TrEMBL record:
SUPFAM superfamilies in alphabetical order: Ferritin-like
Protein name: Ferritin-like superfamily
Record Pfam families: DUF455
Annotated organism of origin: Ceratodon purpureus
Length: 219
């Protein structure tokens, strides 16, 4: 993976560490502490399930779990405000929310990169045009997008032929259905998800149950 990949996820780790410190400090101010309240461990379960597959990790952790955070944060902020806790609401809204968008964007960006990198080497003609369109779409998927060096790598060398953007989205659907249990839950925060670089074609098809291959049962 390019150095830019590691740079992006060092920033994500720094953000998450800072979020924890800020929230832990806020809990302490309210005579509480991390671990005092019940919480699910779905994020960690998915981390373990995808530990062997980078593409799956990016799709499920960053484009499903963190995207779900984008969906619920506006409502969470509203609840704190209605409860009179403007300080926590401000922390969530002005610090955590915008940074979580960039974390989802990193997932979209590098999941797409892996799909472009790993595509078959025999795409020609129209597929080359599709590749450039996919790369243009990829550059819009985060605040910085891919660097010129990385885009050039995908365009010029090492057999990094590209599928169409629709193929990247289809690969995302396949990975999520394999590693994430059940359909995605609406309502979706379309504006925040768009800011992270993925539109409704990424997630709406995953909001309904589909029949498992060779089975009459829905999953």
């Amino acid at each position: 993976m390019p150095r830019e990949f590691f740079d992006d996820f060092v920033r994500v780790a720094q953000d998450e560490g800072r979020h924890f410190r800020l929230l832990a400090a806020r809990l302490k101010e309210m005579n509480c502490s991390y671990g005092a309240l019940p919480a699910h461990d779905g994020l960690w379960d998915s981390a373990e399930a995808t530990a062997h597959d980078l593409k799956a990790r990016l799709a499920v952790e960053h484009c499903v779990h963190e995207a779900r955070g984008l969906d619920v944060l506006p409502t969470t902020v509203s609840r704190f405000r209605k409860g009179g806790d403007d300080e926590t609401a401000k922390l969530l809204e002005s610090v955590i929310y915008p940074e979580e968008i960039t974390h989802c964007a990193a997932g979209v960006k590098w999941f797409s990169y892996l799909c472009l990198r790993d595509a078959p080497k025999d795409h020609q003609g129209e597929e080359m045009v599709a590749k450039k369109l996919a790369l243009l779409d990829l550059q819009k998927s985060s605040e910085k997008g891919l660097s010129t060096e990385v885009v050039s790598e995908c365009q010029n060398g090492d057999g990094l032929e590209s599928p169409a953007v629709s193929d990247v989205v289809a690969a995302f659907h396949d990975v999520v259905r394999k590693y994430f249990r059940g359909p995605l839950k609406p309502p979706f925060n379309e504006a925040a998800r768009a800011a992270a670089g993925f539109g409704p074609e990424w997630y709406l098809p995953l909001a309904t149950k589909v029949a498992a291959p060779g089975s009459d049962h829905l999953r």
